[in-house]
Amino acid sequence: MSTSADPRFAGLPTRPGKIIAVHLSYASRADQRGRRPAAPSYFFKPSSSVAPSGAAIVRPVGTELLAFEGEIALVIGTPARRVGLDEAWTHVEWVTASNDFGLYDLRANDKGSNVRSKGGDGYTPIGAQLINAREVDPTDLRLRTWVNGSLVQDDNTSRLIFPLAQLVADLSQHFTLETGDVILAGTPAGSSVVAPGDLVEVEVDAPTGQSSGRLQTSVAAAQGGGYDEALGSLPAVDDDQRIAAWGSAEAAGLADDSGQSTSAHASVLTPDLRAKLEQCPVATMSQLLRGRGLNNVSIDGPRPLPGSGKIIGTAKTLRFVPNREDLFTSHGGGYNAQKRVFDAVGEGEVIVIEARGETGAGTLGDVLAIRARANGAAGIITDGAVRDYDAVAAVGIPVYGARPHPAVLGRRHVPWDHDLTISCGGATVQPGDIIVADTDGAIVIPPTIVEEIVDAALAKEREDAWVAERIAEGERLDGLFPMNKEWRERYETEQANTEQANTEQANTEQANTEQRDTKQANNEKPNTEQPGSPS
């Protein structure tokens, strides 16, 4: 039915001027992602990304997270500008199947716009056949996706958060939808990663029998090529991106038998490492980090609320932006980013909040603190204010904040996004960074060097304790603090002697224990001799 000579647009009446895709529209997908938007949001895809049924999509060299998203495509027949909900569907001429492919390896630097992650050649297959929109009910269309013959997505437009007609009417408020433009209506739960050799099929059909047929796309590996670092960002993935692309930690192979995440940064803080960190003052670790060239790891400003003890955990980040009334309307209510973070925080994680040092409104209150404590969070750090100050302090979870303030966050903040790199108290914090806080303040430790820093800090603490004993005995500071060569040699000799004595004592205790165990075993050995038997 295509009138275009270009084979890429064989599944469409013409080459589209615009392709507009919806970020999140199906309830099943929203539930899977843990957030339900109050209004639809969109991104553009280039028409050069369109491909027909039967074409191959190429996964670039050095990437791993090519994900499919089966979707319904709406093709505009007559231009629509500021049309109402009741007439919006009359401007849709055709309905068909589409696949909104995305490469999560490229998502980080274009998150939201998806320019590189979803704009590649062949990333928008559409077809195979067009369905006359006049012959179907837009509230009762079925969407199904298969991978290698297995059904992986099966949903209906009756379960959309935003009806198809609403998407048309909403977009027409902002610009003219022209003949041939395409709207991709979002994907349901079940989107996941595919690899070279896989075959993905998408079909849209109606109860009355109309069908798009199966839109088929095979996945192929790139032969050579790649990305030039001198021109732009390179592909990069972490476990959070893997979980988002695959759909769950389990699907990504990042969960244990109980379903808990086993991502790299979640497993850095072993019980032994936590025990070591308990013994390490923040001041000592800050000094050691500075000695390694890391001068900007202190979270300046937040102080512990009354009763708040030491915090040790991995960072889970939340970002507030300055309040703007229209943005608070779209992002501040409902199940917003703030509520999602406090619901999702895991055991041993620290919620770190970027509030820009703005203390004119609270960034959390007692209910959120209770939720974090119930989830086993290790603490909360905000460079903004704390509302319900006394009640939060009484919850029993360590909280560090800039000061108390009675106002709700909407006075100064919009809860914007989470699980991304933020700034808190002048320090850059990434998800999975190690956060340690005590009465001296809070610091950020890169996970890759935390073991090294902890061991060095414990050694430094032993050295400082020895120096303090000598000072208490009346020794002069000069030459001892810091130690000169002579004092250093004396310290190291005493340490070596102490270690040797401890080792000998431990060996003696172990030998004594083994002797007692052997003697006890012999005493408890049963007598197997029968009465009257010869000796």
From TrEMBL:
Pfam families: FAA_hydrolase, RraA-like
Superkingdom, natural source: Bacteria
UniProt protein name: Fumarylacetoacetate hydrolase family protein
Binding site for substrate: 365-368, 387
UniProt GO molecular function: hydrolase activity; metal ion binding
Cofactor: Mg(2+)
Organism: Ornithinimicrobium ciconiae
Region named Disordered: 492-535
NCBIfam families: PRK08245.1, PRK12764.1
Residues at which Mg(2+) binds: 388
InterPro entries listed in its UniProt record: Fumarylacetoacetase-like_C (IPR011234), Fumarylacetoacetase_C_sf (IPR036663), RraA/RraA-like (IPR005493), RraA/RraA-like_sf (IPR036704)
Stored PANTHER family: ACYLPYRUVASE (PTHR11820), FUMARYLACETOACETATE HYDROLASE FAMILY PROTEIN (AFU_ORTHOLOGUE AFUA_1G02370)-RELATED (PTHR11820:SF112)
UniProtKB keywords: Hydrolase, Magnesium, Metal-binding
Biased composition regions of type Polar residues, renumbered to the chain: 494-513, 520-535
Fumarylacetoacetase-like C-terminal domain segment(s): 18-217
